[in-house]
Amino acid sequence: MYRKIILSGLLILGLVPIANAIEMPLLGKSPLINLVNFNILPDFLSFSGGGSVDGLPFQSELNVIEGQAITLKTILTVSSKIAQNPADIFVLAEYNGATFVISHDNDTGAIKLEAWQGITQIKPFMSVESFLSPVEVPIYEGALLKGGVTVYVGYRWDAYVGTSPAINIRVNSQTPTALTGDFIAQLGFLPNPDGFGFENYGDVQATDLNDQDIVDFLGRAQACHLTADGACVLKATAQRQKQEWLEGMTGGHCYGMALASTALFTKKIKPEQYQENITQPIRLLKNSIRKDIARYFVMQSLTNIQALINATKTPNEVLDAVITGMKNGDPIAILTIYNNQKEGGHAITPYAVQDKGNGEVWIYVYDNNYPDDSSRIVKINRDMNTWVYEGATINPSEPASSYFGDAVTKTLGAIPLSAHDNPGIYQLDVAELRLHSKQARMLVTNAAEQRIGFDFTTGVFINEIAGAEFRLSLDDGTPPAYLVPLMAFTPPSNSSDALDQYLQVIQDQSLSVEIGLLETSALATQAPFGFSIKGKEGFAGFENIQLSASEHLYVGVHPSGRFVYIGSNTQLTNLPTVFLTINDDNTQASYEYEISNIQLAQGQEFALLFNEDNSLLVMSVSKDGDNVARLDSSAYSLKMKKVNAEGQAIAQQQQITLPANARSTLRAITWESENTRTRQLSENIGKIEITTISK
């Protein structure tokens, strides 16, 4: 039974708990935290939900139009360890910048809305005698006024409290965008109803890209091991590339959203393809179109599009291209804007051009960080050949910043819609080094002591390597990728002398990489992040990098992708996971090796080399000489993956013992099909052989 009340434009409902609730998608899990002693009980709460609109379910996000009715509810499941205990459920709503506690008057049944006074003062929304079965919490039914509402459902037992993930609801105006005045050119596009009703986002799902997407982007030769009947088994290197692209989306999907909105406006795609009876893009739910937004996002990496992104233009040249595109039916789908620090970019959609006099021309843009907003403008000064976009932001969750440039900086670009009809495939003739973090930076040094990257001493980006360049970032606000020339690599034989000679050559060719945090990030807790190099034959890199303010990671990689090491001057509490992902044309197979839980004595280097026979050479060398020092025999976990036309198989060992003072090769001699395996990844799988090749 629902009881309705309208307060401050926010429609709120009373509720009655329902036992034996229907199954709903998982919204998220939450720990319980003791407010007295700060003891934490992890994953004791599980929230499902959060509701539906027009018969379609949604979970943590929703966008609607004013007057559009929604139903909002969650299902709370409590750990069996405490499910028998009575507890209170509470509901919080953030609306127009204020936080409210929603509760019932036990005597009258009326709903009360009170300002937040802290967790200890919160009043329960409802009380439940036990949680032996899931409890449904119907939170909301009705319509909202324009703006944003964020809802949280909480649980309180004794001194323990826990809160659901946020449920975010955005309400856009019923009234379409209106433009006034005379215009040099107009596309006819308007942020409302032709833009999306949801903000640019950074959440990623594994299903955003599928195997066929990767084949389309890489081409069958790069992506596939072909079966006898021509079917594609995705190579390990292609799987890694998919992971890299998904990781790149975590900072935002601005390129994909800008391109998708123009494609919808020009009828290349239609809203009803994604949601039945929907004719306006602003009414589309994110989950209905996110896969195509992800595909459009990846297009910025493809060869022909990269050529356009890298093409340098002055502000006046970009303005002319925008006007011409609006008039000839091939609109500029993407305006690219970059800041002058090489640390962020954004993709926006131009839709009208207006002469403001005195040499100033305004380009009206749809900024996917700001739905239903017609105030976003790129200002071009024809006389000065300059541009500025005030209020631009890389990420919608960050404060606004100012982007600007001139004919020298050339930080403004234009990409027509038609360019995406033939975008090419993703192909590199250089090695690409990429850091997946906004808070960290890296400096790369070659054997000649030439550098490219962020100088931690001066705090500026430098480039001293001939043929190397920066690839500026769109969407995610991360530092640029670094492109460096490739080098030939022939794996050595396993004889000790040949190996010693060749390792010296490889070390001379390898790139040294220093990774550290920005000073502005030093006081904040940093999430683990990764670093990778895409080389001639595959990928190498590190995952789960964890740094404190004073720590730097010193590593090395070969531009082929076959060799990687952790430097002896690295002194971290937790060393990262190391991976090598290589395609071997000779055996028509591809491989991925991951080694984790690494522990090194002070002054040791740890190196991995992918051998010609597809084994993994592991070395730990003392910085004081050529003698190989012992690895901690109980500290290494290894997972090997092999992919060929027959499918995918793995071998895994949780504890690896390597002989002291030796170089060792690791080779899987028994594989287990990953397609049929039912055991846990924490177990040993298959059989890995360890061979000592030199003392």
Automatic annotation (TrEMBL):
From the Swiss-Prot or TrEMBL record, give the protein name: Uncharacterized protein
Q: Which organism is it from?
A: Beggiatoa leptomitoformis
Query: What is the top-level taxon of the source organism?
Result: Bacteria
